[in-house]
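Researcher: I'm preparing a figure for a lab meeting and need a structural model of a single chain. I don't have an experimental structure, so a prediction will have to do for now. The sequence is pasted below. Please return the structure as tokens so I can convert it later.
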Amino acid sequence: MVPVGTDGAGAWGCRVDPDGGDGSTDCWTDNSNVFYYMDSGGEFRLEDVDKANVRSALSTEYSPTNLAIHYDADPVFSGSAETDIVYQEGSKNLDADSAGVTWCNGVGSGRYDCDQQYIRIRGYGAYTKGRVCHETGHAVGLQHGSASQPSLSNQDTRLGCLQTPSASGDHLGSNNKDHINAVYPAP
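Model: Understood. Here is the structure written out token by token.
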């Protein structure tokens, strides 16, 4: 979880990232009530199968934690009450070897708080439940093994869907659920 230490990942806190992120995942959503939106039009529109993977990952992996997951049918993209997570499909500004990315575009009031995060995952089969679980993990503060304290292999099974690379059927895992519940109070 962020913060992970006084040096390296997590040392500087959350900051606004460029579109498509910069590889830094030093943020977490700003409260236990998580409102999400799935882009439904334009360049980053999710297809029905992708939306089903988002709903499945959120309901089976994140709803059993202290996070209260809510779909935001009327998303807010600016101001102090922005929709927490916006899911997109596309490859714009993704590194060639990345299946997805999470980035903050609205820093919250705390050191690690992000008021709004974007998750962009490639199409053409990359938008799996495991990938959604992985990128959503970053949005709530979970890290890759190499960025954690103590450092773990990125393939350590305790990382669940935060293993890198992640598999389509990966689950959040009890270790990650424990970390989420330790950080976020039950709403």
